[in-house]
UniProtKB/TrEMBL annotation:
Keyword annotations from UniProtKB, A to Z: Signal
Pfam families: SBP_bac_3 (PF00497)
Chief localization: other
Signal sequence extent: 1-24
One GO CC term, this protein: cell envelope
Signal among keywords: yes
Localization, UniProt: Cell envelope
InterPro entries for this protein: SBP_3_CS, Solute-binding_3/MltF_N
SUPFAM superfamilies, A to Z: Periplasmic binding protein-like II (SSF53850)
Stated name of the protein: Amino acid ABC transporter substrate-binding protein, PAAT family
Length: 271
């Protein structure tokens, strides 16, 4: 091999290395906000690793669109303000798509159902809903209701049962603790989470659902989606395409089956 060939080879190798370095340097990094305490959807394991359905969705979407992720733990009631303040780029935290929230931020298409249900002690008879599934306001008199602050459950109570004695909490753990200790008479929460993390455990043996699933679209939206700042249409398009790919490939269902014996989405969302 002569000197000219060696020089050309060296130039070629340098160009390849330069392009590779530039590609790595320009890789998109998206900061994702979540509570990190909302098991089984987003939480930290005993080893300090983030896990859960939302985390799997975030990683699955990132792999499809070719982005790196940086997770940011954020208390729930500050989630939207933190997004608007550019503390992170996306909310992937089981946040329901509602008209009220869409006045401030934008959402991808849905990737999980969004519902609520009352939970209370088996020892207390509570006739809270009529046969049509509508709440009976007078039957809530004398009951203290625990709700997580800034949630769809809180909005539903504010509009539908404004006279109820509501106690607001900054997270789900103290909510369940006060239910067990009798500081509140019932709570409204996600029935999937309630079944898996409480009712199926020893601590939840004395409790049960009180009334039907509540899923009014005005309050619970069309489902849970990825939140982002308004005006980011190109990013929204990529996220929507990625979610559809996860649905149609069966990957999204596999995330749910790690936790529940059923999927958490509608197949039509992949169309």
């Amino acid at each position: 091999m002569n000197l000219k060939m060696l020089r050309n080879l060296a130039i070629g190798l340098f160009a390849m290395l330069t392009l590779g370095t530039a590609g790595a340097a320009s890789a998109e990094t998206l900061r994702v906000g979540m509570e990190c305490t909302y098991a089984p959807f987003n939480y930290k394991t005993a080893d300090g690793e983030l896990a859960g359905y939302d985390v799997d969705v975030a990683n699955g979407v990132a792999e499809i669109i070719g982005a790196d992720l940086e997770f940011v733990c954020q208390e729930w009631d500050g989630m939207i303000p933190a997004l608007l303040a550019n503390k992170f780029d996306l909310i992937i935290a089981s946040m329901s798509i509602t008209e009220k929230r869409m006045e401030k931020i934008d959402f991808s298409g849905p990737y999980r159902f969004s519902t609520g249900q009352m939970l209370g002690p088996k020892s207390k008879e509570m006739n809270l809903f009529d046969d049509a599934g509508n709440p009976i306001p007078e039957n809530f008199d004398g009951l203290r209701v625990g709700l997580e602050r800034a949630t769809t459950y809180a909005s539903w109570f504010e509009d539908i049962l404004p006279g109820a004695d509501v106690v607001l909490y900054d997270g789900s753990e103290p909510l369940y603790l006060d239910l067990q200790n009798g500081r509140v008479d019932l709570i409204m929460t996600n029935p999937m989470k309630a079944h898996l993390k409480f009712l199926s455990k020893e601590d939840g043996a004395g409790f049960e659902f009180k009334g039907p699933v509540v899923d009014e679209e005005k309050y619970f939206g069309i489902g849970v989606g990825i939140g982002m700042r308004q005006g980011e249409d190109e990013l929204k398009g990529r996220l929507n395409n990625a979610l559809k790919q996860l649905i149609n490939s069966g990957e999204l269902e596999s995330y749910a089956l790690k936790i529940f014996p059923f999927k958490l989405h509608k197949d039509e969302w992949g169309q």
